Fold:
Amino acid sequence: MQDWPLTVDKILDHAARWHGDVEVVSRSVEGPIVRTTYGEVHARAKRLSNALKALGIARGDRVATLAWNTARHVETWYGVMGIGAVCHTLNPRLFAEQLCYIVNHAEDRVVFTDLTFLPLLQEHRAKMPSVEHFVVLTDEAHMRPDLFPDALCYETLVAAQPADCAWGGFDENTPAGLCYTSGTTGNPKGVLYSHRSNFLHTLVTLGIDVMGFGARDTVLPVVPMFHANAWGIVFSAPAVGAKLVLPGPKLDGASIHELLEGEAVTFSAAVPTVWQMLLGHLRENALRLSTLKRVVIGGSAVPEAIVRGFRDDHGVTVAHAWGMTEVSPLGTLAAPTARIAALSADEQLDYALTQGRPPIGVELKLLDDDNNRLPHDGATFGRLMVSGPFVVGRYFKGEGGVILDDEGFFETGDVATIDRDGFMRITDRAKDVIKSGGEWISSIEIENLAVGHPKAALCAVIGAAHPKWDERPVLLVKLEPGQKSDPEEFLRFLEGKIARWWMPDDVLFVDDIPLGATGKIDKKLIRERMKDYVLPSGGG
Ligand code: AMP
Structure:
């Protein structure tokens, strides 16, 4: 058969050729909603490729972006990847020191930035010696020479170049993207995606039981392009010619609702906190969703209230997904099988709340502490291992050494069960699981139940040291504004829902539950804050 390298430039070529008039709509960083098309995005991405070449960027060079989801950011991805350079997405929610570490480690030569981040870059640019140029994703009228005198203007760069530029023509294993993941120990580590791995991830996620959208859909990736590739949507939407709607910097309930309704969005994807904000906004203002059909939720476990809220109040289907930076990111998605689709709505909910089952191209297994395989019985939990053509093989520059086991599986750091149909349920992060008397307690399961209490805004469960049992669970609750409660009320609420020995030894009401750079509860910080905490029994 033909040798047809699987390179991602072909995705935008395809979109421009067959879906050239399909719109790409962005809420711009400057404010207004801006409309373009795949045809335009393609032409401008090619102009940008020429501009990058003029700046001396060649195959393999790293070009970073520090930017929200907008059409200019999409153009930058394709402009960089099309000529075989590597697009390195920076997460602006990281601490400045971490950002500088990552830029230096990646040896980024150019940084494309939104206006939002100019002050941050100006303050720390001396700590990024590899960076030769900063390009601001805006036009001349919005440039800020007062903040950053020698930055280049994106629109000026693009306007100065012709739109013909040869893309591709290299091996499909050429690196295309780079994304760092903040490890639990040590420095952040880079995952270097190849054109081939991105292309295959795109095809797999487009399956009907995975993301499964098409040319009749309007797709809104709220999940940022700097967090695990916006779950691949910047590739999969143009691959099928779906209209693409990009939220820019505004991710609050009102702004997302305006885009969902104004652009007739049918499919969207985001982490649970975004949906919590949206559903809250809809409730408070008695608003409806008239076009949205399906949302993918992942990044952390989806609470039942969100699934019910979407389903019962708005007729929207929730697809719960699990993934990680190291898996490109999609690993599993909870689409029903024929057997499950025949169950009652409430029975189906049990499955909808799992992290889902693996599509073709993702292999999973569970191991115990001695590396023995564990059964797929839906009850036994163990270390979740993953393998496949879009799963990391080693970190960028070999950081962390060998990261695969003898069978080529990557250790996710998650603890999970898997049932006979492949439905996987995360019970914890390996480092968060509470080890009590030699048995494991799932902190996430208690959190998910506790947050179902109507007075709870956010809940976190951590293990506190105990002299007899090693660790015992402690529940932290951030109440909804204006609410009052006491520990007994929450303990009563949990009673009967979890095993007695899982019941928290203490309930603490806190003003704040810290979230990390990707919107997940920062348990490391909570543990740090609670290092002097002693259980009420004195731990005895
Ligand atoms: P990141 O690489 O930042 O996307 O983080 C990946 C980690 O997020 C996974 O290893 C899980 O611990 C967690 N995660 C992702 N999706 C889910 C989910 N649906 N439920 C629970 N945890 C999740």
Notes: The chain has 16 helices and 24 strands. The mean pLDDT is 95.
